[in-house]
Amino acid sequence: MATRDADSTREPGDDTGTREPDTPRTDPLGEPFLHTRFAPPARPATFLHRPRLTQRLDRALDTPLTMVNGPAGAGKTLLVADWAARLGQPVAWYTGEAAGQGAGMFWASVLHALRTAGVEPPPGVGRPADAGRVDHGLLARLADGLSGRDRPAVLVLDDFDRQTARQVADQLEFVLHHSGPGLRLVLVTRTEPLLPLHRYRAADAMTEIRDADLALTPEEAAGLLALHGLHLPDDAVRGLVARTRGWAAGVRLCAMAAGESADPVAYLREFEAGRSTVADFLLAEVLTRQPARTQELLLRVSVLDRFRPELAEALTGRAGLEPALAALHRENAFVEDLGHSWYRLHPLFGEILRAHLRARHPGLEPELHRRAAHWLGAADAVPEALVHGAAARDWHFTAAALVSDLALGQFFTAPRAGELAALFAPLGPDTRGPAPDLVRAARDLAGPDPARGLAQLRRARAGVGPGGPAGVGAGAAAVGPASAGTAPAVDSAAPAVPRLTPTPAPPALSSPLSGTAPELLLGHALLEAVAARRAGAVGRAEAAVTAARELRCEVPARLLDKHPELSALLLAQVGAARTWAGRFTDARAAFAEATARPGGVATALPRQDCLGQLALIEHLEGRPAKAERTATAALAEAERYGLDRPGSGTLARLVLAAVAVDRADLTRARTLLDGTPVPAAPDPSATACRALVTARLLLARGDHRAAAEAVGTAVAADTPSPWAEVHWALVASAAHLADGRPDSAVKVLDDVPYAAGPAHAAEAARALLAAGDTVRALALAGEPDTGSRAAPGVRIAVALVRAGAALEAGDTATACGLLARALPEARREGLRRPFLEAGPGVRRLLGRPPLHALATGWLLPSAGPPPPARVGGRPPVGGRPEGGPPVVEELSGREREVLLGLAQLLSAEEIAAELYVSVNTVKTHLKSVYRKLGVNRRGDAVRRGREQGLL
Amino acid sequence: MRYEIRVDGLMSETLAHAFPELDHVTMSGQTVLYGPVVDDAHLYGLLTRCQSLGLRVVELRQLPEPPPEPPRPPESG
C-alpha cells in the first residue's frame, strides 16, 4: 500500500497533519523540511580528525563570519561537522538545495535550522510563504531577536555556493550585521560568496579557512592513508601529496585504488609519474575495480540528488541493495549517509559518474528519470516525482501524477505556481490524453496566454467531459513499463544486471487515470469554474462547483486535506461569478465559507480574491468604510505571505480607488488606478470597476465624452451585470447632464434595472433629481429601506434627494434637518461626492450656519474668509473666491511644487531642472494646475493659489 | 565568442563527454577544451562544471574569432 512508502519518503516526525502556527514544519512549497538538510552529515569510520583546522575554527565563535572555502572534495563539510560535534553547544545547520532555490525557501530553511538547534526566533517573526522572496521586516525581526541573545547562535550554511539567488547574500549580510554578537555565521562554500568580505577582513571580523589550509599536510595524508590500512614510506606520501596538491578526495581515492593493487607503493609511484587529471583518473580506476553490479548501481543512482535503498532498487532492478549502500558508505568512496536511510553520492563523484553513465549507456538517463518518477510517485513524493517525470519527458505520467494528486489548483495559487509553470513549459501539444490536456489548460489559463488555455480546456472537455470518450488509451500505453525505445542500452551494456522487474513501488500512481477518474473530473470542474468566472457566466460556474462538490466524496479525503487551495479556489470562482451577476447574498455565502477556513499560504491568493470581491460588494452596497477595510484586508492577506507583487489584489486596489472617488480624493484614485496593471486574465467585475473609476475621474476633469466612452467599452462577459449596467447608466446620465442635455440624462436612467438593490435605486434617484425629474427621484428614493439597517451610502443619498426636493418646494427647514442628520454619518464614511454633486441649493445651505459647522474641516475649507491658513492635511482647492461651494479636485503634491515654482517666477525649464523631471512633464502639471484652479495664465494661477492658501 | 579552457592533467575521453559542446585536445600534460561559448552565463557554467568535476583550470582565454583549427600548440613549455 501507498502508506508504507509514503512513510519511507517522509521522514519520521514530519507529520504534516499536526502543525502549529508558529513552528511550521513545512517549507514555503508546503513540503516537509527534510531532516537530512538540517543536521551535519555523519563522519565515516575513515574520517581523519584534523586538530590543526578545528582549532582555527574555534575562532569562529569570536568573529561574526567564518568562511570555509575550497573545491569539491577538499573535506570542508566533514571538517565543520567534526568541529560542530565537538563544540558542546547546538549548531544550526542547513545544507543548501541543489536546484536554484529562491530567497523565501532559503530563509524558511534558516529559520527551521535555528529552531532545530533550539534557537527559537522571536515570536511574531513570521515566515516567508513565497519560495522566491522574503519580506524585509522578517529579516529585521530575526536580526533583532538574535541580537538580544546572551550566547551567540552558531549557524552553519553548507553548500552555500548552491544558493544562487543574488539577493540572499545581501539579506544574509543585513541579518549578520544587525544581529551583532548574537549570531556567528559559518559559510561552507566552493565559491567566494558575494558578501563584502573585504570589510570583514579589514575589521578582523572574519575567520577564513581556504584551499591552501584545507590541503592535507604529509602528516595528515599519512594519517588518512593509515585509516585506509596503507602504511607508506614518507617520501611516497610526500610524492602523493605533491601530485594531488593535498586534495583530500584525491588522496582518499588514491588510497582506495592503491589498496586494491598488489603493490601499493609501486602503484602510487606510477600514479605520481602520470599526468592524468586526478579525480577523473582515480575515479575511473576505483570504479572499474568495483564489481560490475556496484558500478551499475553507482552509475544509475547518479541521476538522483538523494536516494533510499528502495529507490536505488527501482533504478537498478535489483533487490536488497541496503547492505551494498552501507558498505559503500563505510568505505567512504562515493556514498554519503544522510541518516534515516537516505544516501547521496558525493557531489564530486556524482558529476563524474553522470559523465560515465552517458558514455557507457547513452540514452539511458531519461529512462532512469522515468523509473525514479514512477517510484517517487508511488511513494507519494509528488513534487520530486514531477521533477523526474519532466526530466524524462514522460508527460503522460507527470500530468497524471499532478492531476491525481488534486494539485491542479497550484497553478493558480502560491507558492508553487511558478515552479509548475516552468516544469510543464515544455509540454507540447502532441501529448494527447485527458491528464495532459487538463494540465496544458491549467498552465495556460494561469499563464500569460489565457485565451490558449480556453482552447485547451475545450479540448480537455472532449476527453473528460460528460459523454466524452474516455480517452484513456493514450495515457495507459505510455505509463506502462519501460518502453522498448529507451531500454535496450541498459541490458546490452551491463549483462550482469537483470531486467527491470516491477519492484517495491506499489502501482497506485503507475496505473493511469481513466478517462472518468474522479480526480480528472474534479480538475476539470475547477478549470471550468475558472473559465466560467472569467466569462461572467454564473450558471456555468454554479454547475462546475456543484459537480465538484459531488466529486469530493469520491476522492481520498487525505488529498483534499493536502490541497486546501482546491476548495478555496472553487468557492472564490463561484462567489465571483455571483458577484458579477449581482447576487450579493449568495456571493457573500461563498466568500464566508472560503474565508472561514483556516488560513495558510496555499489559500492566501484565493482568500485575497474573495476579500477583494467582498470589498466590491460593500462598496456597491454603499458602505465605503467597510469596503476600504475589506480591501485593505485583502491586500494584507497576500502581504502576510510575501505575495504582494504587482498584479495581485487587482480588484482590492480598484475598490480602494472607487472609494477614493466617492470621497472626492481624486489624486489618490488616480494613483491607485495607474498603479494597478491590467492582469492577463481579468475578472469581469474588476474590469467594470476599472472602467467606472476611469469614467468618474474623466467626469471630474470635465471630459464628459471620454467618460461616456470609458463606460461604453464593454466588458467581455457572457451575461450582463445588473450593477455594472446601473453604474454605466449613472455615468452616462451625468455626462449628458454636464453637456446640458437633461432630457437625455433622464432617459438613460429609464432602462436601468432598479431591482439591482437599494444602493443603486438611491444613486439613480440622485441622478434623476440632478436631471430635474424630482417626482421620479422622490418615488425612487422612497423605495429603499432607509431605516437603521440601510447602508450609510443609501441613507445619505436618500437624504440628499429629499433635501433637494424640499428645497425646490421652498421648505428650507426640512432640508436643513435632513442634511444635519446626513452630514455626521457622511463624515464618518468620508463620503464627499454626493454633496459635491448635489444641486446649488444644497451646496449654498452647506456654506451657511448651522450646517457650515458640520461641513467644515472635511467637506468645506476649514475656515471662512479671509483665505484660510493651511490647517493640517490638504485643504480643498479651487473654490470660488467668495468662499462658495466646495470643490472638486485638489492639487497633487507635484502640482503644488510646480505652482510654487511659478510663484518664484521660475520658467518651465527651471522648474523642470529643480524637480528633476522633463519640461513636458512640467507643462502637463501646469495644465492641470490651471484647470483645477480655473485659470488660464500663470499670474492668475499664483494669485488663486495665494487665495487658497497654497503658497 | 570562442574560448579555450586549459586544465591541468590529461582528461579521459569519458570525462570529456561532460563537455559535449567543446572540442578537446591533450598536450604537454594538459587538456585544452575549446569551442564556441554562447555568452557569459555559459562561460561561468563551464567553469562551475570544471570545478564540480574536480578539474584544475590553469588558463582561460578568449580566442580570435575565426579559428579554423584547434589552437596552436603553446610556444613555450
Summarize the structure.
The complex is a heterodimer of chains A (951) and B (77). Chain A is mainly alpha-helical.
Main beta sheet of chain B, described? 4 strands, antiparallel
* Tertiary shape of chain A: elongated
How many helix segments of chain A? 49
Q: Treating each run of at least 4 consecutive H or I residues as one helix, how many helices of chain B?
A: 2
The third-level CATH topology of the domain at 2-214 in chain A is Rossmann fold
Based on DSSP secondary structure assignment, what is the total number of beta strands of chain A? 7
Characterise the protein shown here:
Among the domains of chain A are: 2-214, Rossmann fold; 218-369, no CATH class; 395-474 and 516-581; 893-947, Winged helix-like DNA-binding domain superfamily/Winged helix DNA-binding domain (Arc Repressor Mutant, subunit A). In chain A, 58% of the residues lie in helices and 4% in strands. Chain A has 49 helices and seven strands. In chain A, the strands form two sheets. Chain A has a five-stranded parallel β-sheet with strand order 2-3-4-1-5, sandwiched between helices. A two-stranded antiparallel ribbon of chain A has the order 6-7. Chain A is elongated. Residues 1-22, 467-512 and 864-888 of chain A have low confidence and may be disordered. Chain B has 77 residues and is an alpha+beta fold. Chain B has one domain (2-63): Alpha-Beta Plaits (2-Layer Sandwich), CATH 3.30.70. Helices cover 22% and strands 34% of the residues of chain B. Chain B contains two helices and four strands; from the N terminus they run E-H-E-E-H-E. A four-stranded antiparallel β-sheet of chain B has the order 2-3-1-4, with helices on one face. In chain B, strand 2 and strand 3 (30-36) form a beta hairpin. The interface between A and B is medium-sized, with 27 and 21 residues.
